């Protein structure tokens, strides 16, 4: 379903105005009572301070329910929202991009019994733009300003215009849920959506990354183990510093500065200070601090240096290497991608929502012994594909792959 750019009516003020921030136990009790007495699903949103603070902590929780109105809760002042969670038992939560907000809400001891994700619904319906403002404009014809989406929500007190923005975010979610739910039913995709929403609700937290320092932007340009050791040492020093100071690591020291130091291998504080990323006021003031991990990496024995390859995983190699390493697997991937792309087009779905690309690559790199629909279906289920996805793709994938045998 192609998107259009409809005429929109700007939303500038929440119905009933902007409620005061709830930051005391007494005020929270009133909110709990109101939301327990409310009816129907509850709209939920959460604001973080990504790019400003360390981690993904929630700094504002917004809710809206029929009969209860809107509540804005400060989870720093009130870190335990289990009483509110109890009041909402059995209630469907409506969120936009639920996978982003649910982990932080769990820290406040809030876990939904059911979820409706308006972003996922928009994807399943084939909308080209799935940000909240774009979906609200297309589906409801309302203009939702997003100019405060990336501000520092750890600021206290929160400015009135930010609170107005936060209240408006949940103002539209319940109406949007009804409209998208109707579209899903009309398209015969409501069961697909139910399975997707439940998968998001039950998703476990991701496992800790092995050697996360290797994700430093620009590390691919570092070509020897000694220089990689500098990246690792500086990344670890930055991480400790950022955690201690509760500042986003990129604000403590940019990735570009770490990679520049690794490339240059400075042998003194003075040499490090002459590198361009260290000539700014903030980095120049702490250049002694940043030279310490460099010196530690330079002093390591060869045996203690990191490998160039990184940790072993069970993931297939990058597809660009398949033609040389396993031409048969490369042929399977080409055929499988074509089949999945055709299905996605037929059903107006993004390819990645029809089947996770990593799962498709794993299937083609290490296929089951038989390339029939039943064996492919079993492999996809074991890899986490939902029932609706398996039902759609197993047969066409078998038909595409069997021709290569």
Describe the structure.
This protein is an alpha/beta fold. It has three domains: 194 residues, 2-Layer Sandwich (Nucleotidyltransferase, domain 5), CATH 3.30.420; 93 residues, HRDC domain (DNA polymerase, domain 1); 84 residues, HRDC domain (DNA polymerase, domain 1), CATH 1.10.150. It is 51% helix and 10% strand. It has 20 helices and eight strands. The strands form two sheets. The protein has a six-stranded mixed β-sheet, with helices on both faces. A two-stranded parallel sheet has the order 1-8. The model has no long low-confidence stretch (mean pLDDT 95).
Core attributes:
3 domains, Nucleotidyltransferase, domain 5, alpha/beta, two-stranded parallel ribbon, 405 residues, 6-stranded mixed beta sheet, DNA polymerase, domain 1, single chain
Secondary structure class reads alpha/beta
Helical segment count: 20
CATH fold label of the largest domain: Nucleotidyltransferase, domain 5
What is the CATH superfamily of the largest domain?
A: Ribonuclease H-like superfamily/Ribonuclease H
In the CATH hierarchy, the architecture of the largest domain is 2-Layer Sandwich
Q: On the 0-100 scale, what is the average pLDDT?
A: 95
Give the uncertain stretches in residue-range form.
Answer: none
Number of domains: 3
Query: What order do the helices and strands follow?
Result: EEHEEEHEHEHHEHHHHHHHHHHHHHHH
Residue share in β-strands: 5-15%
- Principal-axis shape: flat
Compute the gyration radius: what is it? Answer: 25 Å
